[in-house]
Amino acid sequence: MEKIVILTGAGISAESGLGTFRDSGGLWERHRIEDVASPQGFARDPGLVQRFYNARRAASAEAVPNPAHLALARLQRDFPGEVVLVTQNVDALHEAGGATGVLHMHGELASALCAACGHRWTAPAEMRVAEPCPACSAPAGRPDIVWFGEMPYHMDEILAHLETCTCFAAIGTSGNVYPAAGFVQIADAAGAHCVELNLEASSVRSDFAEAREGRASEIVPLWVDEMLAEG
Ligand code: OAD
Fold it and tell me: Where are the beta strands (DSSP E) in the chain?
């Protein structure tokens, strides 16, 4: 059976109004990664980190899925084989567009995590410093986001899918952050056709057999039409 594994990054949500990280004017130009996306930064200044993710949670709640999110949900629904969606994004736009079973490898803004007991719950719109855990009461609530130095989620499941896929597509990701940037090599070694769909060539462009450049809202629906026509 055909199996398509799709990896998405910030570029797929750019046209929904959510900022990317490394483009000019991106989030990492205005914030230091080590301040807002590391356990050490959270320990130093939890207020700054909560404010950063509260702002992103608010922006994400306002955003609506664009034609690229909708097209991937359509592919999942109509493709005769299996379509696995893996995202580095912490927004919920794939789900809002109708996708199911999305593997959020870098966590989700909608979720809160207790640093003391590991319990997860639905994040309030505004998380506070020392947010109490509803399970153990420790004042240890943090955004359920994978920070630098932490292990991405669902890795065993994702690797198993990559090793058995027939097609791998990376959409809207710059190829700078591992392990996600290395997925193409695993899929390629498994014999999958690997295609990159991005505004520009990513850092790992040469690992792909095929690349299409353009805005996700334009090139993704076209690619989905082709996959459905072939499938
Ligand atoms: P980046 O900001 O690194 O890359 C976004 C990519 O999307 C770039 O290659 C852009 O050219 C492309 N792009 C921008 N607008 C686009 C559009 N309209 N259509 C198609 N492509 C477009 O974002 P990621 O690769 O997702 O991790 O970043 C990976 C990880 O780095 C993030 O998950 C985050 C960050 O640090 C954590 O916070 C743990």
Answer: 3-8, 82-87, 103-104, 107-114, 120-122, 141-145, 167-171, 193-198, 210-213
Residue 102 carries which side chain, given as an amino acid letter? V
Spacing of C-alpha 151 from chain mean position: 14
| % residues pLDDT > 70 (the chain) | 100
Q: Which two tokens stand for residue 87?
A: 């995202």
Q: Is domain 19-62+107-145 classified as CATH 3.40.50.920?
A: no
Q: Is the CB of 22 under 6 A from ligand 1?
A: yes
- Fold equal for 3-17+64-106+152-230 and 19-62+107-145: no
CATH number of 3-17+64-106+152-230: 3.40.50.1220
Q: Is 172 in the pocket of ligand 1 (CB under 6 A)?
A: yes
Q: How much distance in Å is there from the Cα of 8 to the middle of ligand 1?
A: 8
Assessment of whether the complete model's pTM goes beyond 0.70: yes
Ligand 1 atom closest to the CA of 215, numbered from 1: 19
